[in-house]
Amino acid sequence: MTLGRAGDFIITRIPSRHDIVLIFGTATFLTYTWTVVVSFWKVPSWLFYLKTSEVIALYSYSFLVNFIESLSLAALMVLLGLILPKRWWYDNLVSVSVVAMLLIITSMAWHSRLYQDPELRDVFVDSQLVWWICTVGLIFLLCVLAIRINSFNTLLLNLADRFVVFLFLYFPLTIFSVLVLLFRNIR
Amino acid sequence: MPTISRREFLNLASFAALSGMAATHPFAFFNGEINKPNFILILFDAMSAMNLSLYGYSRNTSPFLGNFGDRSTIYHTHYSAGNFTTSGTASMITGALPWRHRAFHYGGLITSGLLGQNLNALFRDDYFRLAYCQNPWADRLMGQFYGDVDRFLPLTAFSLRGNTLFMDRVGEDRSLVSLASDEFLFTLQDDVVGSSLLGYLYKSAVANSAVRHQTDPRYPKGLPEIDGYAFFTNQDVYRGVQQQVLELDLTRSPFYSYFHLYSPHFPYKPDRRHLQLFDDSFTSIPKPVHPLNMSKGYADSDLFEKRTRYDQQIAHVDSEFGKLIAALDSAGILETSYVIVTSDHGEMFERGFFGHGERMLYEPAIRIPLLIHAPGQNERRDVFTPTSNIDLLPTIHKLLGKTPPATLDGSILPGLGGVEDENRPIFSMEASQNSAFQPINRAVIALRRGHYKLMAYPGYFEGDELYELYDLSRDPEERENLAARDETTLLSLKEEYQDSLADANRHFVPAR
């Protein structure tokens, strides 16, 4: 029994469980770690006026947002595997996804940091088109290199392997966060 | 000798009794048993009394407040206990000085021990309670009393576009969600955003929206905004406030409504009509840059320009307020309601500094308006005795026929059941550099007693302490520091502030 051409097409483009874990692990590492690192600058001032339970709640809300971000980012990579030509994306799904996610997050963080002063708001808006054209161009270039250069491809796969380890840290933290937030909001 | 009948005697005796009541509380007979009076509190964020023509400012910034004052009790020497939204508003809501409520950090929270003591809780019985805070920090504070509000309007109500994500749908944990999103994950302030993906997308959406709303024919300098959270017109906001009050009045049940309105807070974006005001020869008195000025040290010409824009913004807000009051009057609401008009803190344009907060406790930063209209009041009354915004809570206790607890820091306002006491100490404090969980040892403290004002800076200057002492009756601009010349007064006020601070620290119990 077939599912029709569309259904068959989708089935052939669904990544393996192993690949999904690697992609999700990378997305998780990038989003959670950014938040944790930035929080190190905030914690000293938080402790000035927030109780420990409130700081825990703050982190809980943060990790919930991070979870949504990592799911969204990973889903985007899988979706690109469905949309783009097979040899552009799906055939090297993990390595090109690592490149794309790294560059997307880095680009967002850097652009935001450069223009974090609210008075530079107009400049931030005006620079967005060029910024993202450059980012997409760089992603394209590095993806081509990832496909063509085996050692680079291997490096990216190894990176993804390492990132998966962080799932063992961030996933339990997320579950704990959900419990904290349920307790705080459904009492 | 003429004689009086028993009936005439009884009539005279009744009249004498009523007169006696009126002398202690001119409007006591309006606190009737038939209807409980409504309470409408309107707070203008960052409105300094020093910039209001109502209080003698040379520019005619507040004619409509002046008209309203003709039917109100005007407090001419009213102070906020804090110099920015969090600490000033927290003091007003809890009736506690900052060293007690501990909300003296930017966007901070009131200590949990005081959460049962607040304006909203007073109206728990029989009153419908509405709260609307256009300022995110005030909204965060009010979120701590979520259980004591029956209708909590979102910050973006009456706005053209709101960008507060899911805040409108959050319940009890509103204050923490506000902290997590506004101060960290999706911050729009000059800070690194905590959420790499969604934080960037949010910032991008808000920035693009801001650029689109920058040009509006009604507002040549751009639409008023709340730090990118929402764009609004004051016409819409005041119309919205009017609508809410009229709706509440139609229910014929007593209500308490709290409106914390953002204008005239920076950025100053008056409408076209008011932008043309004050092209005049106004000059401000130059003053030296303050040693603790953390800002970039604005030149006098910059400060003058900002002051003029601020005055235009006040005039705009004043005209909208006038329309609001006229509408409430037409609906007869002024006959059945207390209307309280005030601010959370002032605004400064001197000593190289503009704005509020930081280490500035000069008069423009902490002197705020207070006008209270009692139901049916048609006469003006003036009170010149120094008062504080911590007095509002005990006063409303009194107006509701309740006894204010002895633990409140404030006193009942003169003219509404309290006594005039020229020598009463009035404190204001700024302590954002001090932990909320430690005794106060690094702060700026202002103490006004009589016509003298002391400013102390404990923890800021090693070795030689800095004190400023001013005689406000002779030197209202605070230019002549008497600390070196009037040692007697200095020592007396210094001892008083140190005793009060030591007492506050002695009773402080950290709540981690």
What tags apply to this protein structure?
heterodimer; A: 187 residues; mainly alpha; 7 helices; 0% strand; B: 512 residues; alpha/beta; eight-stranded mixed beta sheet; four-stranded antiparallel beta sheet; 14 helices; globular
Largest sheet of chain B: 8 strands, mixed
Number of strand elements of chain A? 0
What is the C-alpha radius of gyration of chain A, as a whole number of Å?
19 Å
Can you tell me the residue ranges of chain A where pLDDT is under 50 for at least 5 consecutive residues? none
Distance between the amino and carboxyl termini of chain B: 78 Å
Please count the beta strands of chain B (DSSP E, at least 2 residues each). 18
Rg of chain B over CA atoms, rounded to whole Å, is 23 Å
How big a fraction of the residues of chain B is strand? 5-15%
Greatest interface by residues involved: A-B, 45 and 43 residues
Strand order of the largest sheet of chain B: 5-4-8-1-9-12-2-13
Instruction: Tell me, briefly, the overall form of chain B.
Output: globular
Question: What is the straight-line distance between the termini of chain A?
Answer: 50 Å
Compute the number of helices of chain B.
14
Write down the overall mean pLDDT of chain A.
Answer: 93
Q: What percentage of residues of chain A falls in helices of 4 or more residues?
A: over 70%
- Indicate the structural class of chain A: mainly alpha
Question: In percent, how helical is the residue content of chain B?
Answer: 25-40%
The residue-averaged pLDDT of chain B reads: 89
Would you list the SSEs of chain A in sequence order as H and E?
A: HHHHHHH
DSSP strand (E) fraction of chain A? under 5%
Oligomer: heterodimer
